[in-house]
Specification:
By secondary structure, the chain is an alpha/beta fold. It has a single domain (about 1-145), classed as Sugar-phosphate isomerase, RpiB/LacA/LacB (Ribose 5-phosphate Isomerase B, Chain: A). The chain has six helices and five strands; from the N terminus they run E-H-E-H-E-H-E-H-E-H-H. Strands 2-1-3-5-4 form a five-stranded parallel sheet, with helices on both faces. Helix 1 (about 10-25) crosses helix 5 (about 115-125), helix 2 (about 40-55) packs across helix 3 (about 70-75) and helix 4 (about 90-95) packs parallel to helix 5 (about 115-125). The longest helix has 14 residues, at about 130-145. The protein is globular. The protein starts with a strand and ends with a helix.
């Protein structure tokens, strides 16, 4: 799977761990995030990943900032993005199964490396269920288009 990852200064170390983990699992990972601990603006990284995923350049995205919230809000401003913040694996599985989230986000100040890996596994192992969930995803797209 082609994966794009983005992060701010709060998440450099966790991003590196997650990139290596995804690569070990056979995914092609592109880094759009910062590699510096110097302060940066997370919305820029959220937008960049969001635009690349929405354009179909990547199968999905992973975003990491201090909490996962700010960077995911920025990504969600891009039409076609469904970014979801997850702090544990059950939510990560359900955002894929029910919402067909195309970007997953979490916080480097919220989850540790092992929890982040569990979140990644749950999300990547899940499949969108369609059916009544597709109806709801379509309704979200309708809101976006109005």
């Amino acid at each position: 799977m082609k994966v794009v990852i983005g992060n701010d200064h709060a998440a450099v170390e966790l991003k590196n761990e997650i990139m290596a983990y995804l690569q070990e699992k056979g995914h092609e990972v592109t880094n759009f995030g910062t590699d510096s601990n110097d302060s940066v603006n997370y919305p820029e990284y959220g937008e960049k990943v969001g635009r690349a995923v929405a354009a179909g350049e990547f199968d999905c995205g992973v975003l990491i900032c201090g909490t996962g919230v700010g960077i995911s809000i920025a990504a969600n401003k891009v039409k076609g993005v469904r970014a979801a913040v997850c702090s544990e694996p059950t939510t990560a599985r359900l955002v894929k199964e029910h919402n067909n989230a195309n970007i997953i986000a979490f916080g480097a100040r919220i989850v540790g490396v092992e929890t982040a890996k569990s979140i990644i596994d749950a999300y990547f192992d899940a499949e969108f269920l369609g059916g009544r969930h597709q109806t709801r995803v379509d309704l979200i797209s309708d809101i976006e288009n109005r």
